[in-house]
Amino acid sequence: MNYDTCIIIPVYNEAKVAGETIRTVLKDFPFVVGVNDGSRDNTAQSIAEAGAVVVSHPKNMGQGAALQTGLEFALQYPSIKYFVTFDCDGQHDIKDVKRMLARLRQGDLDVVLGSRFLKTGTKVPWAKKQFLKAAIVFTNTFSNIRLTDTHNGLRVFNRPFAEQLNISMPGMAHASEIIDKIGRGGWRYEELPVTIHYTDYSRGKGQSMLNSVNIVMDLLLNKARK
Amino acid sequence: MIIRILLILGTCIALLWFLSRRQSIRSMAWGKLAAIAFFAAAIVAVLFPQLTTKVAHVVGVGRGADLVLYCLVVAFLFFVVQQYVQRSELEQKFIRLSRKIAIVEANQNPHNLALLQKVIHSKKAKS
């Protein structure tokens, strides 16, 4: 029952929805690490009550930083061979994780990424789609790997990749950073179609259009830093 | 003409530094040298104000006061970049420190220890 896999879920001020997500995930994956990113509500308590391991940042530091914390915590246990990054707001589907993991277990890949644009049932809101398309063109231009969805929070990867990842972009730019590292390190990757459940909740708090300016700038700066 | 080259060069170096986002030993040494030169120039300029005008003429600027202003703009640029670089490095240190604290605390949390017993250390998990 997937004792060799750790699901990492960063949570910031989303006590209620995170608890539900964790309960769903725990049905198939016993080891879930909820990273409470300095929330002001009772997120830590809700993660614990749902049955996940709690790691709490003393202050809010951003999703990228939270993912790295979860990874470093999970890497302490040598029996964990596979790592999954999973959003807390219920937009990902655990069935997709199982498929991606099965693909990774075949052993010829290091990273399996989720894509909502490879034929799937996902209805992406129009404005969001345009924004994501632009982000894809941009990321593909500036990194030497080709993807159909560059800002998907669902990723499954093996231990060697996790050990060297070291996410340094604290905020949302970690998505581009991870892709950049895959390209630069020559890691073997593949995209699999996944379903994103756009609930009213996730729509309400998704990345704003203006945030794309941040993503683009961060990516350019990251490039210049080499 | 010379002043234009100097000003553009100064701006470009500040930009490159901003992009590198790194504080190297070399850039710190240059910063110290620049600071010493700046203080020395300030005292000389106060003692011999007409000297700034002479230097200004050499590099192609009309008045000494203008030259001082231009130099100040470039110096300010470097100051801003230096503050930015230092702030990003501090942020990285802060994040790494907080992460250490978070993991140490998580490793001692009784709830986590009980859970890990089941999902990592139990016979079922090991098989």
Q: What does this entry look like structurally?
A:
- The complex is a heterodimer of chains A (226) and B (127).
- With 226 residues, chain A is of the alpha/beta class.
- Chain A has one domain: Alpha-Beta Complex (Spore Coat Polysaccharide Biosynthesis Protein SpsA, Chain A).
- Chain A has helices spanning 15-26, 43-50, 63-75, 94-105, 126-142, 159-165, 174-185, 200-205, 211-225, and strands at 5-11, 32-36, 53-56, 82-85, 111-115, 155-158, 189-193.
- A seven-stranded mixed beta sheet of chain A has the order 3-2-1-4-6-5-7, with helices on both faces.
- In chain A, helix 1 (15-26) packs parallel to helix 2 (43-50) and helix 5 packs parallel to helix 9 (211-225).
- Chain A is globular, with a radius of gyration of 16 Å.
- Chain A starts with a strand and ends with a helix.
- With 127 residues, chain B is an all-alpha fold.
- Chain B has one domain (2-126).
- Chain B is 90% helix and 0% strand.
- Chain B is built from six helices and no strands.
- In chain B, helix 2 (25-47) crosses helix 3 (49-59).
- The radius of gyration of chain B is 27 Å and the shape is rod-shaped.
- The model of chain B has no long low-confidence stretch (mean pLDDT 89).
- The chains are: A alpha/beta (226), B mainly alpha (127).
- Chains A and B meet through strand 3, helix 3 and helix 9 of A and helix 4, helix 5 and helix 6 of B.
Question: What key phrases describe this protein's structure?
Answer:
heterodimer, A: 226 residues, alpha/beta, Spore Coat Polysaccharide Biosynthesis Protein SpsA, Chain A, seven-stranded mixed sheet, B: 127 residues, mainly alpha, 90% helix
